[in-house]
C-alpha cells in the first residue's frame, strides 16, 4: 500500500464523511428543536435531488440550476411536511412522531419509484473525476470538492446559529423550550425553520453525493450513516456531528485496507458500540454519565 | 365488545372460505401464472422490468393474438422486497389462494431458494428464476433461467486463461449469494489452469465508497479484474479506477453486470471494459426476435426503454407460451414440463437455438464484448459452456 | 364479560385451521410469532423505555440456534429446542444489556441498531455453522414420534407457545417485578428513590425481552423453513418497533394487536407491488395522527371495552 494510495483512500473517506456529517447535522437540527428523530431525512434529500435533476434535464440549464431547484424544493418539502403532518403530532409522544416520520419515509420512497422508477441515474458533478497529481499526492477533485463544499456549508450554518436572531432562537429552544416561549420566542417558527434548514442541508448533500452513488430512490439510505455519525460524535452537538461524520467516513475506508474480510464491514458499528460504552455521550457529547 | 369482535371474525372466516377457483390455474378461458418478486427494496427496478415489461409484454402479445389454445394468460405478482420470508408467504399465497398454474421469473437467490422445497413438494413448476446461483439445480420442477454462474465462469476463464493466456486474476465481488457463487466458480475454474486469484475484495450491497477495495486490488497487480457486482457499485468501481489512474488492468464484468445501465452510470470510465454478455444488444441488435421485442415494447409500453431485464422476462414469457402451446389443450403441469423438455433447437430469434435437456437449463451461452464509444461491441461468437 | 371474551378468542384460535384456508393458517402463525416478539420488545421499550432497533438480531440468533439444533440434534424435542434457542438469545441479551445500562434514549437505540448489523455480519462470517449467504434449510420439527410437517401442526405449536408466553407476560406485569418495570418507565429517578434497583430491572428487561424474541426466532425458523442473513435486516427491526408503537406502548394486548395489524396489513398489500410502501406508510401516518398512543390507547377510550389497561 503506497503512501499515495493511502492518502487517496483517506481523502475519499473524508469526502463520504462530509456527507455523513451534513446528514448528521440535519438530524441534529431537527432533534434539537423538536426533540424528534426524522426518519424521513434521507428520503427528503432524495426527492429534492430528483426534483433538481428533473428541472436540469427539462430546462437544459447549467448544473447550478439543479442545485438551486433542489434547494427550493427541499425548503418547500420541509415546510409542508412540518406544517401539515408533524405539527399535528407534536403534542403526542415522541414515539408517535417517530412512526409518522417512518411512514413518511416509506411514502416518499415509493412515490419516487412511481414517478421516476427505481432505476439509477448518472448525476453530473461540479467537479471532475480525473485525478490531480501534486508531487507525492494524488487526489480526485470530486473528493476535494465535496469536502470543500460541505465545510463551507457547515461554516455558514455555524454563522447562522451564532450571529442571527433565528439562530439564537433555535439555540434557545434547543436548550429549554418552555423558557424560550416565555421569552417571547415563537417555538412554532423555530420548528418550521429547523425543518426547512435541515431539508436544505440535505438537498446540498444530495447534489454533492449523487454523482458518486448515483441518483436513485434508494439514495436516502445514506441517512442511516448520518444517524451513526451523529451518535458517534455526540448527538445534539454540531461539532460532534462533524467529527462523527468524518471519523465514520475514514473508518469505513480504512477498515477494508487493514482488517480481514470477516470483520471489516462491522467495524464502524463495533467502534460505535465501544465508544458508547466508554463515553455514553459520544465523542464530544455532554457526558451525562448515569450512575446506574 | 365481544359480540362485535366475534361477528367480524366470523365474517372474515366466511369470506376466506369461499369456493376455490379452477384446480391447477387452468380453466376453460385462462391460465394463471405468477410469482413473488422485488417491487420494493434493492432490486425493485429489475423486478418491475422482468415482470411488467418483460413477461407481461409477451403475455399481451399472445393474448391479443387469441391466447394459447383459446386460453388467455393472466399474471399475478406479489412484492417481497427481496425478503426470503415474504417470498415464502407470497409463494404460498399464489399457490394456495390464487391457484397459479406455475411460478414464473421470481428474483434473487435467497427469496427463490427459500421457496424451492415448498414448490417441489407441491409439484408446482418454477420457471426461469432470475438468479445465477447453481443451488437451484437438480429439482424436477425447476427450469433454470439465466446462465448459471458456474457456466459463466467456465466460459470466461476458458476464454481469458485458455485463449488469451492471461495468468493474474483478481475479483471485486458483492458480499452476497451472487458474488459468492461466482467467486467459488472462478476459483474452481482457475484451478484447472493451475492458477489462483491474486486478490479478492468484497463489497457490501449499497456501499458508498469502494476506494479501499480497489486500492488493495491495484496493489496485487492483476492483469484482469473481475467485477461481480450490480450496476451501481460496478460503475463506482470503474469510476474509482479512473480516479486513481489504474490503467494496467482489464476490468471484466460478469453476465448479470454486463448491461447498458452500468455503462450509463460509469460514463467514460467504462471505455475499454470487457465482459461476458448474456444477451444481444436489446437496442441495436438486428436479430429478428430482438426487433420484434422492440416493436412490441414500442406498441404496448412506448415510454419504457428496451433493456436486458425486460428482454429476459419477455424471453421467459416466450418459452412458457411455447411450452404451453406444445402441451396442447389438455394442459397440466406434467404436460408442460414434458413439452418444455422436448425443446430441440427452438428458434427464439433472440438467443441461439434452445435445446432443453434433463439438466433443465434453458440458457448456457454468452459472448464476449468490449465497450467502445459507450456501447458493447461483440468480439466473439456465442461461447460454449459444456 | 372478560371471561366470555377470552373464551371466544380461545375458540377462534383453536378452531381457526378448520375454518380458514391453509394460507391463512400460515399467516396466523406468522402473526403469533410477531406477537411474541412484540411483547418481548414492549417489555424492553414500553416498560423500561429502552427503545431497541436491533430486535431482528435477537430473532436471528434464536432462529439460527433452533435451526442448527434441529439439524445437528434431531432427537431433541421441539419444546427443548425452543427453550434452548430462547436461552442462548437471552445470554446474548445479557451481554448486550449490561454495557448498555449507561446509555439512554437515542444512544441506546443506536447501540441496538449497531448490534443488529453486527449479528447479521457474524451470521455471514460463521459460514461453517450457518452456511452464510447460501442460507440454511430448516428440517421439520418433531415432538416425540410426531413430525410437524403441515401448516396446521406448526400453527398449533406456535399458538401454544404464544399463549404460554402471553400468560407469563401478563403475570409478570402483575407482580412486584412488573410494577417495578413500569415504575422505571414512568420515572427512573422516582423508581430509584423508592428502592427499585434500576440496573437489575433494566437488565432483567433486556434478558426477558431477548428470551421472548429468541423463542419467536426458533418458531420463525420452523414455520418459514429457510433462513438467510437477508431475512433479518434493520427494516425488520423497525417493523417490530412499529408494531409496538401502533399497538400501544406498555400494553400486552397492544403488542398482540399491533403485531396482527402490521403483519396482516403487510400481507394484504403485497399485491399492490410498487404502491405497497406508499399505502403502508400512509396508513402508519394516519393511524398515528388519529390514534395517538396507539390502538391500545384508543381502545381504552371506548367505554366498556375489554382492553386491559397497563396499570
Describe the structure.
The complex is a heterotrimer of chains A (292), B (386) and C (311). Chain A is an all-alpha fold and 292 residues long. Chain A has a single domain (3-278), classed as ABC transporter involved in vitamin B12 uptake, BtuC. Chain A has 12 helices and 2 strands. In chain A, strands 1-2 form a two-stranded antiparallel sheet. In chain A, a hairpin with a 2-residue loop joins β1 (132-134) and β2 (137-139). The relative contact order of chain A is 0.20. Chain B folds into 2 domains: 22-146 and 286-355, 3-Layer(aba) Sandwich (Rossmann fold); 149-277 and 367-383, Rossmann fold (3-Layer(aba) Sandwich), CATH 3.40.50.2300. Helices cover 42% and strands 17% of the residues of chain B. Chain B contains 12 helices and 12 strands. In chain B, strands 7-6-8-9-10-11-12 form a 7-stranded mixed beta sheet, with helices on both faces. Chain B starts with a helix and ends with a strand. The model of chain B is unreliable at 18-22 (pLDDT under 50). In chain C, α2 (22-47) packs across α11 and α3 runs antiparallel to α4 (78-97). Chain C has a domain at 20-234. Mean pLDDT of chain C is 88; it is low at 305-311. Chain C is mainly alpha-helical.
What are the salient characteristics of this protein?
A: ABC transporter involved in vitamin B12 uptake, BtuC, two-stranded antiparallel sheet, C: 311 residues, mainly alpha, 14 helices, 3% strand, disordered C terminus
Shape of chain A: globular
Largest sheet entry of chain B: 7 strands, mixed
Question: CATH class of chain A, please?
Answer: Mainly Alpha
Q: Averaging pLDDT over every residue of chain B, what do you get?
A: 92
Helical proportion of chain A, percent range: over 70%
* Unreliable stretches covering 5 or more consecutive residues of chain A: 288-292
User: Per DSSP, what share of the residues of chain B sits in E-state strands of 2 or more residues?
Assistant: 15-25%
Number of domains of chain A: 1
